[in-house]
Structure formats: structure tokens, C-alpha cells
Amino acid sequence: MRHKFSVNFLLTLFFTVLGLAVMGYHPGIEDDGVYLAAIKCNLNPSLYPHDANFFRFQLQATFFDNVVAGFVRLTGVSLAATEFLFQFATVALIVFACWQIASRLFKEVRAQWAGVALVGAMFTLPVAGTALYLIDQHLHPRNLATALILLAVWRVLDGRKCQAVPLLLLSFLLHPIMAAMGISFCAFLSMVLLEPFPAWLQRWRGSAPMAAAFVSLPLGWIFEPPTPAWREALQTRTYFFLGQWTWYEWIGALAPLLLFWLLWRIAQKRHETLLARFALAIFLYGMFQLSLAIVILEIPALIRLAPMQPMRFLHLIYVFMPLLGGCLVGKYVLKTSVWRWAVFLVAINGGMFVPQRLLFSGSEHFELPGRTPANPWLQAFAWIRQNTPTDAYFALNPNYLAAPGEDYHSFRALSERSQLADAIKDTAVVTQVPELGDVWTRQLRAQNGWTRFQLADFERLKTEFGVNWVLVSYPQPAGLVCQWHNAVLSVCQLP
User: What is d(CA 144, CA 15) in angstroms, rounded to the nearest whole number?
Assistant: First the structure.
């Protein structure tokens, strides 16, 4: 028994490290621009005196920033080290939970670990039409919520539903939207595991009536008229509008449901009862959530519900797809052949590693604490963090996140300074927090034509908003006096 525990522990650790090695680590990118800034503000309230609302309002629905900041205060471990430690622990929990689920569905050890291996390699698999990966390349409450949901699924499979409840509640405190999906799936899984098996499930045809009944509840705030600024921000996110999905995104949404329906029927014929019921639970969950999403996203009166992002139900399905697919490959293809396993691991991990290096071509694959960045944008952010006043208010290209080599690193989170609203990440924040719409619109309009700005334009921003520093391309526009530059960027203080 002790030997078996040691082997399983080492395999869990191995696939955790391998998954991280393929995925990479990039703190401060994309959504982490919101969460990391909130944590830093929690630890040092003097930060972000001009723009804290662009992350503070969105964090009202989660305890994530309080948890991370509380750990830093309690232990004295640096925030950078804490974030990496939490990311490592989260990935390890996901790997462990996937193995536990696989071990309930497949008795063959090779099948169990093949499923875990495929999930680990596919951490950065995009989820069709949702702007999600299975796991983010930085610490995110969605990662933690996913780990807790998978642990809850394992406990439901073991018939320990009471143990699943606190895990789901904790996930809700971290990420309510993902937790709602996890609760929904665990409800369907509990239903299909009932004994005797409910006969009506064999005749199940859909849940549109249930979805319609749900969304017709008297929630008056839903029908409040949205502001023009909020609508403008919403239009920048195609995943809110099913009519704007591409054909391949629809294939990515519907094909997994068909595959799990087929797996249910095949496993049922082979008398693999638990696997059949698990596949059926995924299918029922997917069909119900798809019906609900169509109702929410296609009825104009319910547009205020669009930021709930109901199509993100696919995230959990995309976790189970490589897990069960890998288990089947391990059981029927890899078996005990060493060379097949070697080819399998090299192919799946190499196939996902290359796109990650191309996606973050301007950055180190592992942006670990204490390393001097080679990325010129990160060099500029570091100089600003170390050499400008805490209350400095910056303006920079509102589309800077999409600049070549910038790799979507957040100025606000990494420089620890306030900035005028940007046109990419802050836009997504506005879709979640409509009351920021007017501020966002005004600041964005004032930055139109940024690439042609001269000294008079920067002085106008100072007069209108109080901006007193700018980050511009090097060489800087005439008249600006800059205190630092590299080959790409200049940091200048406005007179």
C-alpha cells in the first residue's frame, strides 16, 4: 500500500511539473491585470489612487484577493513567490482530482494516467468561443475554482455528496460563475447516479422549458436599460453573441456533446455502468446549459445577463474531454508499450509547447520571481515601479496590450501605477461593471489618435485628467523630457 501511494504521489508530481513546463508561467497577463492589481492594492492601499475602480468593483464578487493577500501577511512570503506557489498547488490539485475521477471510471492504471497526461498537456487548450483556456498561465480564481469543482466531482462519484458541498461553496466564494457551472454538473451527476436509475432519463430530450422557466424569474434588475457605453464595450466581445460565432466555434461547442452521447451509448452496451452514467451526466449538463445560454443570449430583453457568459459551461466539458479521451487511448492503444507511451507524451506535450512559445514570443517561458526581464515592456514597467511616485498617473497607448512583443502584460498590475483606461482589458471590465462605462468612454475618447500625439496632446490629458507621466515609444515626441528609455520605450514626466 505504501509503495502504491509513493508511485501515485510521484506520478501526480511528475504530471504537475510537466503540465507547468508546457504551459509556462506569466504573472500579470490578461485577467491577472485585474486580480494582481487588486491583491497589491489590498496589501498597500496607497496604490492606484486614480483608477482603483477598474479592478475593485469586479472583485466584489470574490474573496480571492483577500485570500492571497491574507496569506502574504500571515506568512511573510513575497507576493510574487506566493502567486507561483498557489499556481503550482492549484495545478497539482487539478492533476490529483483528474486522477481520482479517472480511477473511478477506469480500473486500468495505464488508462487512468493516460487521461491525466492528456489533460496536463492540454492545459492551454482554448475552449470554443469562450476566450478561456482549461488553465490560465497565471494564478486565477478560475483555476482554483476548477480544482475545487473537480474534487467535488470525485466526491460525488464516491457517493460522498456531503463532502462535495463545502468544496462547491468554497469555489463559489472564489469564482461564482464557474462555481455555478460546477454545481449544475454535480447536480446532474448526482441524478444519474441514483439507484434505481431514473427511467425518464432514457427518454430525455432537452431542457429548454426548464431554462425558460428559470430565466423568467422576477429579477427586475435584468430589465434595466443598458447604457450606450456599456453596449459599446459589450460589442467588442464576440463571445457574448452566438450569431457572431464562427462555424468552427460551433463545431467546438456541439461536437463534444455528440461525443459524450456516443460514449454513453457505447459504454452502456458494454455494461460499463459508471462510465456510461458519467458520460450521460456530461451530455445532460451540456444540453441544459446550452438551452439556457441560447435563451439568455438570444432574447434582447435579457442582454443584461450576457456578462454572466453562459457558454462558459463548455469549460468543464473541455476538461472531461481530454481526461476521458486520454483514458480510452491508454486503455485501447497505449496499453503497456513503452515506445507508444513515449511517442504519446512527446506528441501531446510538444504539440502544445510550441504554440505557447509562439504566443509569448517576446517573454520568458517562465517569468519567475527575481529574474531580470528581457522584454522591453517589462523593463519599462519595472523602472516605473521602482522610480516614480506611488501617486503617479500615467497615460500610454490604449492598445498597448496588443503591441508586438508586449504579450498582454498589464501595466497597472506590473508597474503598480495608475493609468488612463485602455481599449482592451478595461473594456472587458466595463462589460462586467456597467457603472464604469462613462469614465471608460471619456478617457478612451481623449486618447484617440495616440500614435500621432505631440506635446500639446499630452498637456491636454494632464489638464483634463491630471495625468503627469507618459509611457511612449522611443524616440519620444519633440518637447517631452524623458527620464529613462530603452530601445523601444521612453518614460517621461509631463511639465
Answer: 18
DSSP state at residue 129: T
Residue 74, burial from CB neighbour count under 10 angstroms (0-12, 13-18, 19+): exposed
C-alpha cell at position 151 = 474534487
- Burial string for 284-316 (b: 16+ CB within 10 Å, else e) reads bbbbbbbbbbebbbeeeebbbbbbbbbbbbbbb
Q: 409: which DSSP letter?
A: B
C-alpha separations of 370 from 81, 367, 373, 451 in Å:
9, 9, 9, 33
Residue 369 to residue 371: CA distance in whole angstroms? 6
Q: Which residues contact 30 (CB under 8 A, 6 or more apart)?
A: 136, 138, 408, 410, 425
Q: How close are the terminal C-alpha atoms of the chain, in Å?
A: 72
**Could you give the 3-state DSSP secondary structure of residue 446?**
helix
> Among residues 131, 118, 113, 123, which one has the least CA distance to residue 147?
123
Q: Is the peptide bond preceding residue 126 cis, with omega within 30 degrees of 0? A: no
Q: Is the dihedral of CA 179, 180, 184, 187 positive or negative?
A: positive
Per-residue confidence band for 2, with pLDDT thresholds at 50, 70 and 90: low
Q: What is the pLDDT of residues 403-452, one digit of tens each?
A: 999 999 999 999 999 999 999 998 888 888 888 889 999 999 999 999 99
In DSSP notation, 196-213 reads SPPGGGGG----HHHHHH
